[in-house]
From TrEMBL:
Gene3D superfamilies assigned to the protein according to its UniProt record, in alphabetical order: lambda repressor-like DNA-binding domains
Naturally occurring in which organism (per UniProt): Micromonospora humida
Domain HTH cro/C1-type: 84-108
Protein name: Helix-turn-helix transcriptional regulator
Stored InterPro entries: Cro/C1-type_HTH (IPR001387), Lambda_DNA-bd_dom_sf (IPR010982)
Superkingdom: Bacteria
Length: 546
């Protein structure tokens, strides 16, 4: 630590790795220290000691073996394994991982159990695998640094009271919340939910996590130039007339994380922070000199305003969402940010369609398509077609919606092969999103076979870290099962959504859940539907929907 400021977890790990390597320790020896100190499994430790994220490890892999490319998801699955939700690497992949990390295959598997003690020739004392320290009884396997964050935020240690309050130093753990990997955190949250059997304990832990991260997310505001901290008020600019490039850059850097935080922890937990950053961006836009700085500041304000509108949309405050979207569109036009204008028009189309106004949704989608053609961005063209599909589907225009699906697919293929950088707000849009929209269209116009095929592709390709999108896709899947009159699987899939959104459920997810449950009324006396009703009562009784 320096100057009294606590080191972040990443800084601690970087410093320790450098010290150990300078002392002549091998990567394997360094990883063993990391396993003990940071409670990582060996596959995670051997990556983290190099300072690599999962994406960086995948990049290094692809440089060595371009004909066998991997994404960060592959590394995530291997690192979670043998826990639920993980996949075991093949023998070939284990050998390549060992080469990548300069270790042996055995080093990668050092956390797996040993059964040598079952051999009658072995002494009665159980044998611990070489290089592995005995764990505490009941200890939870830690697959990543995200789980370290989760444990610290919850004030949890092996054997600690599950209801213990967070530690006092929790807010200081992440003074820079841009270091939080929310996709990884989402995987860890899901695993914890599966491991903790008692619903009330699960809800209590996730409630603490949501509150702790909401507090931590606002902490960097007090570190920005020109801000003061107050115990009773939100941070404010002490000199609103001053333009600070570093402050503007910080607002820009926070936007991707705020979006992902909303996907993982819910709109209600993220909205206050998004509005605070929006206020800062507005002051920077007013203070910026005319020229590129001003356009950039206005565009940042427009994007944060759109994000706030999106979060309001998910909380069910459609009036405020519409007002913020209108403001965001005006600002984006002022900044001459055509691709951002396209994106905002797309979200306006989505809002209108959701509110039962599909023809207004079609109108906004047409405007988005016109602006998308001026951007040269295949993502803009694809997403403009996507919202058109949903609006046309809601308006019962089968043929036109299928034509829009074809346009979307063509633009999507171009986007997937485009090597140029894309805007950060397109992070959510990929092939799984297309298949999710395809599922919605099939539910309206097609038979069960096409519905099931599209739903299966959407879930198979999904980023499980986006809990918001995954919840909707599971509900579409549940509806498909109901169409097949497979009520057991329909209820089981719906229960998964209820559990997944036990804390961060939004008004829109609740509306879909209610619609799904009403559709099951003909089978309300069956055991499956009764179990669904019990799950809804257990998970929603003490959790107000935001």
């Amino acid at each position: 630590m320096t100057d009294g400021n606590p080191e972040s977890l990443r800084q601690q790990q970087t410093r320790l790795a450098a010290e150990l390597r300078s002392a002549g320790r091998t990567w394997v020896e360094t990883a063993e220290v990391f396993r003990d100190r940071f409670r990582l499994n060996p596959r995670v430790a051997l990556r983290v000691v190099r300072g690599w994220s999962q994406a960086k490890a995948a990049e290094e892999w692809n440089q060595r073996w371009p004909n066998e490319p991997k994404s960060f998801k592959s590394f995530s699955y291997w690192e979670i394994w043998p826990g639920k939700g993980g996949y075991s690497p093949s023998q070939d992949n284990l050998a390549r991982l060992a080469e990548l990390y300069e270790c042996s295959v055995a080093d990668l598997l050092a956390d797996l159990p040993s059964f040598r003690h079952l051999d009658s020739a072995t002494a009665s004392t159980p044998v611990t695998p070489e290089g592995v320290k005995p764990g505490l009884q009941g200890e939870i396997m830690v697959p990543s640094e995200a789980e370290i964050l989760l444990r610290d935020l919850l004030g949890r240690r092996p054997g600690a009271d599950a209801d213990a309050p967070p530690q006092a130093e929790t807010a200081g753990l992440y003074r820079r919340p841009e270091e939080v990997n929310f996709a990884e955190l989402a995987q860890v949250i899901t695993m914890w939910m599966q491991r903790v059997p008692h619903p009330q304990t699960r809800r209590d832990m996730l409630t603490k996590l949501t509150a702790a991260l909401a507090v931590a997310a606002t902490a960097p505001l007090t570190d920005l130039a020109g801000f003061t901290d107050s115990a009773t008020a939100a941070p404010t600019l002490t000199d609103p007339a001053r333009f600070e490039p570093a402050t503007l850059a910080h607002c820009e850097a926070m936007m991707p994380n705020l979006r992902k935080q909303g996907d993982v922890l819910g709109a209600a937990a993220t909205l206050p922070t998004a509005l605070a950053y929006r206020r800062i961006a507005e002051q920077q836009a007013k203070a910026a000199p005319h020229g590129p700085h001003r356009d950039r500041a206005i565009a940042t304000y427009a994007e944060l305003t759109q994000l706030a509108g999106w979060l309001c949309f998910n909380t069910g405050d459609y009036h405020t969402a519409q007002r913020l979207y209108d403001d965001a569109r005006t600002a984006a036009h002022d900044a001459r940010a055509d691709e951002l204008v396209t994106y905002i028009l797309c979200t306006m189309s989505h809002l209108a369609t959701w509110q039962g106004k599909p023809r207004i949704g079609i109108d906004h989608a047409a405007a988005a398509s016109a602006w998308a053609d001026q951007t040269g961005s295949p993502y803009a063209r694809a997403y403009a077609a996507d919202v058109a599909v949903r609006a046309l589907t809601a308006d019962n225009q089968n043929h036109q919606s299928k034509q829009a699906l074809d346009r979307e697919y063509t633009a999507l293929q171009e986007a997937l092969t485009d090597q140029s950088p894309s805007q950060s707000w397109w992070y959510f849009y990929d092939e799984s999103f297309y298949w999710s929209t395809n599922t919605q269209n099939a539910l309206k116009f097609d038979g069960v076979d096409r519905i099931m095929a599209a739903s299966e592709k959407a879930l198979k390709l999904s980023d499980n870290g986006n809990l918001h999108e995954r919840s909707f896709r599971l509900l579409y899947r549940a509806e498909a099962f109901a169409r097949q009159q497979n009520i057991g699987l329909a209820c089981q899939t719906t229960i998964e959504v209820v559990e997944l959104t036990s804390v961060n459920s939004t008004r829109r997810i609740e509306q879909r859940l209610q619609e799904m449950r009403r559709g099951l009324d003909p089978w309300k006396r069956t055991r499956a539907v009764k179990q669904l009703d019990q799950a809804i009562a257990a998970y929603r009784s003490s959790t107000p929907v935001k």
